[in-house]
Design brief:
By secondary structure, this protein is mostly helical. The protein contains four helices and no strands. The chain has a domain at about 40-95. It is about 75% helix and about 0% strand.
Length: about 100
């Protein structure tokens, strides 16, 4: 009985089947795509962050106005207001 003649045929069938399975896997993997969606809250946060970046850190018109008053000797602050704010800042640090 001659066995060696049939073995290459059988192994050829298996190798073709494996190559077809690999091609199917590759097609399945390549058809998948990644998708990202941004929530409404994230978009709102992004809008607020952009607005904050465009807002100056110092309100220069207010600073200039107070500076002019101070230089002219017209800027007055009550001592009680200063004392209240000092006490408030000390109390906030203790809590």
């Amino acid at each position: 009985m001659k066995i060696w003649g049939e073995i290459p045929k059988v192994s050829g069938v298996y190798s073709k089947k494996k190559s077809v399975e690999k091609a199917d896997k590759a097609d399945k993997l390549s058809s998948k795509t990644d998708a990202v969606s941004i929530s409404k809250e994230a978009k709102d946060i992004q809008t607020v962050m952009k607005a904050l970046k465009n807002t100056p850190d110092v309100r220069s018109e207010l600073v200039d106005k107070l500076k002019d008053k101070y230089e002219a000797g017209e800027y007055e602050v009550k001592e009680s207001d200063i004392a209240d704010k000092i006490l408030k800042s000390v109390m906030d640090k203790k809590v």
